[in-house]
Amino acid sequence: MQRFLYIIIILTTLFSCKTEDPEKEYGSLHKRIEHKSEHYKPFYVQNNSEIEYDTVQVALDTVAAHHFGIPKRTSMVDSYPCNKCHAVSIDELKSKGGNFVTPKDKAHEGVTAKDCKSCHEYLKKSHWNISLNHADDNAMNCATCHNQDEMNNLSSLTNKNINFNNSYQICSQCHSTQFNEWKNGAHGKQLTGWGEPKVRQTCVGCHNPHDPAIKHRWPSRLNTQMIEQRDLE
Amino acid sequence: MGVFTNLVKDSCKSIVQGNKAYHVWMGVLTFIMLVGAFCYGLQISEGLQVTGMTDRVSWGLYISNFTFLVGVAAAAVMLVLPTYILNDVDFKQAVLIGEGMAVAALIMCLAFVVVDMGGPARLWHIIPFIGVFNFPNSMLAWDVVVLNGYLIINITIPLYILIMRYQGKTPNPKVYIPGVILSVFWAVGIHMVTAFLYQGLPARPFWNTGLLGPRFLASAFTAGPALIIIALAIIRKFTAFKIEDKTLRKLGLVITVAAQINLIMLLSEFFKEFYFPTHHSESAHYLFFGIDGKDALVPWMRISIIINVFATISLLFHKLRNNLNFLYFVSGLLFIAIWIEKGFGLIIPGFIPGPWGAIVEYTPTNVEIGVTVGIWALGAFIFTILARTGVQIELGKIKYKKA
Amino acid sequence: MGNNIKKWFSIGSKRVVNESCDSDKPCSCKSEKTNDGFDQVLNAQTDRRNAIQKLTAGLLIGAGAVSSSCSVSKSDEAKEQSDLDWEEYFKGNYKLMTDEEKQNTVDRLTRSYELRTGKKINMSAAGPIDDVLYGYAFNISKCQGYMDCINACVEENNQDRESQMQYIRIHEIEKGSGIEFKNGDDTYYHEVPAANHFYIGTQCFHCDNPPCVEVCPVQATWKEKDGIVVIDYDWCIGCRYCMAACPYDGRRFNWKTPEVPEEEVNKNQHYLGNRLRKQGVMEKCTFCIQRSRNGKNPACVEACPTGARVFGNLLDPNSDIRWIIENKKVFRLKEELGTEPKFWYYMD
């Protein structure tokens, strides 16, 4: 009987050793990540039917991480192309005096500025409601970003032409930290999943360039059950 | 197996016979059990939402009582140890009663665990080989092993002794002594393992102390023998079974020492929490003083501490301790004090505050109380049956007749 | 066995004693007078024929009651439903199933849903993708407290509407008090972001050393190869030990049967993810396993309008999440517990 007891005790001790998780051999999560990512192959999402962004590829440095698409801004702005109305350059407009524009489409052929009111009496000036609420007078005015010669595009601080779709190149001039973070994924929104190909939202997709601050709003829901449960009423 | 069947038959006969008080007692217990069963039926159909448990305090009255009763079950060893190992004859009469109490308490423990489960129909998942048994890793798996093992030991050893006595033979020490020795260590084991259930959770700093296991043992050896003293007193009064004063006094000595150790451990915990309070002391603060006006447990703990201290100190005096009536009274007090302190005074504060600091109080609902009281009635019922059979056999009223 | 001793079980003999045998009513008290209730029921004399008849009747009733799929009076659909329920009850732990068994259980569940509601669901048993370890990052500076993530999560994961179960919590904490959750409030309802407050969200962090996995007595919860900690809802027995073990309030329990309005049920489901659960089982965030195993982001990541939530593959050296944990000052909550959560926090 006693021998039996001893056998039971020994067996119990042997079986009581905790089973080791084989993945713990790395010691810590960080080491495990490092070791396991040596043979990493990118994961491509099979059917991307849900991704319907009209995208353009971001042309940045050649680091693989920075190959992603961004949605085309041109397809999202109703009044693009700008030279539908802004047919002439700002200089020309200024020389002619005043703020009026000459529409260039067929409907308006032969029509001069003075006649706008007769057809479009109700029509206020376009962009009448844009006020610039971005930095202050010393740093920003309309000309800081908008290309005055080619109104379809934008211009950099050194007056280089920047495509309307690549507005991030303008934002990055002042907001270089945020740009670096956006490039690498720490700032801004990813529009596709974690697999390849990746599409990120542009700066102007979240921040209205004329009034970029994030607005206040109410939360989406209130958990009344939780309040009741915690006796907070 | 003819002997066993006869034993069962005879004990069934003896159970259904008795005087009026006995029938009233059993009748009341049956009624309470039926109420409990009805409440449990409600719980099964509606789900555990009928209890007061929530996502914040996810263990309540059921697990509190389970924890407390494991201690009571372990305490049967306090009688077994002296009787068989120290050969102290004075305890011999009380052993069967103690074992009966252990079995009843264990069945109550198992019942409390089952009613606490969200999916009792799926409990077969825990059976090794048929289901998946997370043995060395999960303390709950350990608990299943030790509790069931203890139940088996506490059923087989006394059963062997009873069957022998039933036939008028003497039980052979070579058969039961090793089992008894095993049950002594196993009893300590069941309570340490149950303590480890809570002790091993780093998420709950109130439980994650080294002292929890020893505290459990100390309070078990106070509350268990206290209940046995009361049971023996009742048996003494209502049956012809002779229990000597010596036995009761020795048990009184056991609970005196255990109560002092328990109080010292409590003091140690108290010091650790309140000498330099940290975030981890929030639970103790809630328990003893309340937080932000939420102090549901404070009056309970105040009563528990006062009773505990009073009982422990008064037991120090020989004159008081040797007065049997006072001993019964103090045993009752200690039992209640430890039921509060180790029951919901341990489980509920473990969950308050929640992991992100939310203070959500817990109040048991009527359904929950109904099931709990029903299970206590079940325990009392089983204990009465076992004690009655045991006493009758010891008194020689039930004898095996080779008809 | 005289009638002096009252037996609490002796219903029968009482009746016999009260009836007078002198009345005109026929009574069979002669042979039963001396038996007490115990004997009456358990020791009654009966012949073999009666005994066999009664036993057979009992057996038939019992068997019929147990399995109504053999019953002749139930419809075909109800029988099929019972068959499916029967097989579902006896299946094993999902972790130990072969691929074929997994597909079988998915088919059974899909068919069961169709029988119950007439609608089709699309349940997958997709396994982990190779070389993937999911990680999550949360930008505290960006979270404005909108709770759009919670809405999306509830809809995506078919959570119970009545108890407003939410895996995610957003805590509003006053600036200056540190990342001190006990001073925070997760039941706010006012315009956000409130002045001088910041918002920080918590959910299951899918620890790499999960305490919940350690303590489950039936191994109903485990960590998959791609790092997601999952629950087999049909295997969970509802003991709630894992809930006590989780330091991050990651797990939720179904205290009652969860109900989702039919038109809001998300039909793209995964066995380990957002399929409909039942009463008495644990559930939690699964990093939207039904989405992330298809290369998509979890619903919360997708819904967040400010881009405060980032999700990706930790093993991809070019992923956003890798860059964040290697270049931003990241921290995890309750780091000292050694749970190695795969959920990092950072700030701008």
What would you note in describing this structure?
The complex is a heterotrimer of chains A (233), B (403) and C (348). Chain A has a domain of 40 residues. Chain A is 27% helix and 4% strand. In chain A, strand 3 and strand 4 form a beta hairpin. The termini of chain A are far apart. Chain B has one domain: Formate dehydrogenase/DMSO reductase fold (Up-down Bundle), CATH 1.20.1630.10. In chain B, helix 2 packs antiparallel against helix 15. With 348 residues, chain C is of the alpha/beta class. Chain C contains twelve helices and eleven strands. In chain C, the strands form five sheets. In chain C, strands 10-2-11 form a three-stranded mixed sheet. At the A-C interface, helix 2, helix 7 and helix 9 of A face strand 2, helix 7, strand 10 and helix 12 of C.
Number of helices of chain B: 15
Which CATH architecture of the largest domain in chain C would you pick?
2-Layer Sandwich
Say what the CATH topology of chain B is: Formate dehydrogenase/DMSO reductase fold
Query: How do the helices and strands follow one another from N- to C-terminus of chain B?
Result: HHHHHHHHHHHHHHH
* Structural shape of chain C: elongated
Going by CATH, what is the homologous superfamily of chain B? Formate dehydrogenase/DMSO reductase domain
Succession of helices and strands of chain C? HHHHHHEEHEEHEEHEEEHHEHE
Gyration radius over CA of chain C: 30 Å
Can you give keywords for this protein?
heterotrimer, A: 233 residues, mainly alpha, two-stranded antiparallel sheet, two-stranded antiparallel ribbon, 9 helices, 4 strands, 27% helix, C: 348 residues, alpha/beta, Alpha-Beta Plaits, three-stranded mixed β-sheet, two-stranded parallel sheet, 13% strand, elongated, disordered N terminus
